[in-house]
Amino acid sequence: MPDIMLPVRSVPILAQCDVLVCGGGPAGVAAAVAAGRHGASVVLLERWPRVGGMATTALVNIWHRSDREKIVIRGLAQESVDRLGAEGWLSTYGGPEGRHETESFDPEGLTLVWHRMLQEAGVRVICYTVAGEPLLDDDSSIMGVLVETKTGQQAVMARFVIDASGDGDVAAKAGVGFDFGREADDLVQGMTMMYGLCGIDEAARDAMTQAQRESIIADMTKRIEEGELPPSKTANPTWYGNRVIPNMCPVAGNPLDEEELTELTVLGRERVFAFLEYWRKTVPGFENACVEQTGHSLGIRESRRIHGLKTLTAEMVLGAIKQPDAIGHGVWMIDIHDPEGSGYTTWQDRNKTNMVPEGQSYHIPLAMCLNDTVPNLAVAGRCASSTHEGHSSVRVQSHCIVMGQGVGTLAAMALNAGVGLGEVHVRALQEALREDGVYLEDVPGGA
C-alpha cells in the first residue's frame, strides 16, 4: 500500500526527566528503580495496565538465580524475592540434594511489590502508554519519544533513554541495527500461553498412585503425538494453594506481527481449554477444575536482538567467561524452545553440554546493552546484544533484572558526573552495584 505524508505539527510535552525507561517488565522496573535510587528523575512508560511484563502480564512466574551451589543473582532480584517471601507470595523448588535452585511467585503479588518499589524510588509510572517514535537530534542522540495518549500525541523528553521494551522497539526505530531469529531460517523461539487453573480437589489429586500418574502421562503423550491434543511441552506447574499455573501450551510465529500475534494468542487459549477438557475426564480431582485466567499476553521469548558493542555468545555462557565490564552474573543454560512450535526445549534433555558448569557462572557484560549508533540510548532485557544461542540463556527474567539494574545505575551515574553512558568508569559502576547488593566476583583486572 502507498505511504501517506503526515502534517508537521507541534506536540505538547507530557513529561521531562533525566532517565526515560520504555517498558515496565523485569528489566525496565530494575532500571527505573536503580536510576531513581541514585538520584535521577525517572519516567517509566508501560503499555499494559500494570508493571511486570512477562512476569505478571503473561504469568511467566519462575526465576533462576542459583549456580546450583549458591545464589549469584542478587541486588534488586534478591530484594524482590525477600519482599515476595515476606508477603507469602513466593515458593521455591529444590535442586539435587535439596539445594535451592528456582523460585516461583504469585504474579499478582509481584505486581504490587514492584509498584511499591517504583513509588519508593520516586519513579513516575505511566501505564496504558506505548513508547512510540524516538525523537533524535542532529548528532543522533535521542531526546525522548512520542507517545499516543487518550488526549492525543505527546512527547516525553529525557537526557538518557533505556529501551526495556523486550522487542527493542525504540532502539530499532532510532536506527540501531538488530538481528532476528536463528541464522538458518530467521525463526525465533516458540512462545507460550500460560494460564491458571482452580477448582482442583487436592486430596483426590494427591491420592493418585504413581502408576496412575504414569498412565495419564502416557495417554496424554500418545494423544499429542496422534494430533488429538495440541502440541505441548512437559507441564511444570507452580502451586499456590488450589491454583496451578502450567507452562505447557506452545505456539510459534513472529512476535513483531500484531495480526499474527493476535491469531496465536487466540490459538493458545483454544489449546488451554482443549487440555482442560481432557483433564476433567481423566485426572482425579480435576473434575470441577476451571480456568481462572490466561495470560493477558503470550509469553514471548525472543524477537529483536540489537547490535551492541559486545555480543553475548553460547561460548561465553557455557565457558563461564568473565568480562572486565561485568554488571552481574548469569547462570541459566542454553534453553531454546522449538521455533516451530512443537513445545520441545533443550531444557528437557538436561544435557550438561548445554549447561554452565555446576558452581560456576558467566558474566553479563555492560557492552551488550550499549551501541555505537545512539550514544545516550541503552537497552536492557531480552533485546540486548546476543546470538540466538546466547540469548536463550540471558533472556530469562532474573538475568534481565541484572541488566536493568546495571544500566539504570549507569544512567544515573552518567547524569551525576555530566558525562555520556560510555564515559562512566566501569570500575566505579561495579563498585556502586556491589554496594547495592549485586553479586559481582572474579572480574578481570581486579575490580
Task: Indicate the topology.
Blueprint: E1 13-22, H1 26-37, E2 42-45, E3 62-64, H2 75-87, E4 90-94, E5 100-105, H3 107-120, E6 124-126, E7 131-136, E8 142-149, E9 152-163, H4 169-173, E10 178-180, E11 191-192, E12 195-198, H5 202-206, H6 210-225, E13 238-240, E14 243-245, E15 250-251, H7 258-282, E16 290-294, E17 304-306, H8 314-318, E18 326-330, E19 362-365, E20 377-379, H9 388-394, H10 397-417, H11 426-435
Parallel strand pairs: 1-2, 1-9, 2-6, 9-20
Antiparallel strand pairs: 3-5, 4-5, 7-8, 8-9, 10-17, 11-15, 12-16, 13-14, 18-19
Helix pairs in contact: 1-3, 1-10, 2-3
Protein architecture, described:
This protein is 30% helix and 21% strand. It has 447 residues and is an alpha+beta fold. It folds into 2 domains: 13-184 and 303-435, FAD/NAD(P)-binding domain (3-Layer(bba) Sandwich); 191-294, Alpha-Beta Plaits, CATH 3.30.70. Strands 1, 2, 6, 7, 8, 9 and 20 form a 7-stranded mixed beta sheet that branches. Strands 3-5-4 form a 3-stranded antiparallel beta sheet. Strands 10-17 form a two-stranded antiparallel ribbon. A hairpin with a 5-residue loop joins β4 (90-94) and β5 (100-105). α1 (26-37) packs parallel to α3 (107-120) and α2 (75-87) packs across α3. The chain is globular. The mean pLDDT is 94.
